[in-house]
Amino acid sequence: MHNALALNLVAKVMDWDNEIATREYAWLQLMSSMKYDGYSDFRAGVRFLESLVSWLRHFDPQDRAAAYALVKTRLVYVSGAEMQRVIETFIPEIVTPYLRRVVAGRLGIKPYEVWKTAEGSSAYQQHLRRCLFVGLSDGSRIDILRRANAGRLSQEQVVPMMNVDDEKWKGLSDDLQKELGPGATFDDVYLIDDFTASGTTFIRFPEDGPPKGKLAKFERIVSEAKARLNGAFPLAENYTVHIHHYISTTQARAALKGRIVEAETKLPNRNYGNAVVTEGLLLPATLKIGTVDAATETITATSSADDAFIRLCDRYYDQDLFKRLEKHCREAGQTTMRYGYADCALPLVLEHNTPNNSVPLLWAETNGAKGLPMRSLFHRRDRHG
Q1: Which residues contact 258 (CB under 8 A, 6 or more apart)?
Q2: Given phi > 0 = left and psi -120 to 50 = alpha, else beta, which region is 276?
Q3: Mean pLDDT value of segment 309-319
Q4: What is the full DSSP assignment across 172-238?
Q5: Coil, strand or helix: which one is 141?
Q6: pTM for this model (two decimals)
Q7: What percent of the chain is modeled with pLDDT above 70?
């Protein structure tokens, strides 16, 4: 659909007069070209404006102004270029300050003095080489991380997925010892992912079973490989694990820190010692359109302006969405998906996919079996249902 035609259709759906249409056209064209048209999961032949027309049409006329305002005033969209910048700053802004503090502590100097002497610089480089970087999903963008740090990181200290086989473990160990000498091990392991909204999926402790989540899975992988490989295993005893997300909410950060404390007693035989939680971009608590009471699943708006958006989430909702994702939702103690997974109530879209923690109003597609049909503005690829 040509941009001019799409803009005219938006104006018609919204019932704008010429003055309003002219003003909104400028904003829509700017945001489409700079950000929204780059969304990777628009259907063939569809970009943001076409998707917006279809999405707005599924609201009753009296609700379209609030729906449009949600997009214009509350939507946060992380583009591919913005995500790349967060990845590129990971080593210099997260890893480097940590290593300087550790090295300075060992040498008895101030962190800013580490690169003052050859001894400090050498100790820093050796400790950097003793860091292993592990991608936890496609979202960890290990390819970008490697390119951004060519010449700084060895290719043999970065692995794209946590399912490392025995041959790879041996190769990591051999390469590290060739560079740093016999017995050298990785002292720090960075587990990297793109985004966390709730923090609950990284590690959780069900009452009726073993620990679950990515950290629990990595622990099992390490324990099993360690038992098979004995001395050829490259991770140090009680290594420090760093849980790093390129983007995190304040809710997820608090939850992760709480789960890490819980793991100290519920993972008594864990392989790691200390655990550190970091993020490249911390989203403010005010990003949420409301805070949900877990006991009653009622929501309180973040601001008075968000009341209208909450009413949209409540009205334009199909409980069939919950039935489709029921197993996943019940693990989070939910009986509805009105406000997204773990009731995060986020107006957030990432360039490569929309998180299910965002309000389903933005991403859900249903037939209306148990409520009103839902139409997506940013279509989501869902691995849970």
Answers
A1: none
A2: beta
A3: 96
A4: HHHHHHHHH-TT--EEEEEEEEEEESSSTTTSB--TTSS-BSHHHHHHHHHHHHHHHHGGG--EEEE
A5: coil
A6: 0.92
A7: 99
- For 104-145, what is each residue's pLDDT tens digit? 999 999 999 999 999 999 999 999 999 999 999 888 899 999
| SS3 label, residue 301 | strand
Task: Report the amino acid identity of residue 376.
Answer: S
Contact between residue 301 and residue 290 where contact means Cβ atoms under 8 Å apart: yes
How many residues in the chain? 385
> What average pLDDT score do residues 149-161 get?
93
Residues 128 and 121 sit within 8 Å (Cβ to Cβ):
no
Phi, psi of 159 (to 5 degrees): -125, 135
Q: Is 87's pLDDT higher than 90?
A: yes
Q: Whole-angstrom Cα distance, residue 197 to residue 219?
A: 22
Radius of gyration over every alpha carbon of the chain, rounded to an integer in angstroms: 24
Cα angle 144, 218, 199 (rounded to 5 degrees) comes to 75
Backbone angles phi, psi at 210, to 5 degrees: -75, 165
Among 193, 333, 197, 206, which Cα is nearest to 256's? 197
Q: Is the pLDDT of residue 384 over 60?
A: no
Neighbour-count burial for 118-152, b at 16+ CB within 10 Å, e otherwise: eebeebbebbbbbbbbbbbeebbbbebbbebbeee
> Could you tell me which of 20, 358, 93, 125 has the C-alpha nearest to residue 246?
93
Structure-block tokens of residue 173: 């160990």
Is 310 a residue whose pLDDT tops 80? Answer: yes
CB 81 within 8 A of CB 88: no
12-44 pLDDT per residue, tens: 999 999 999 999 999 999 999 999 999 988 877
pLDDT of residue 326: 84
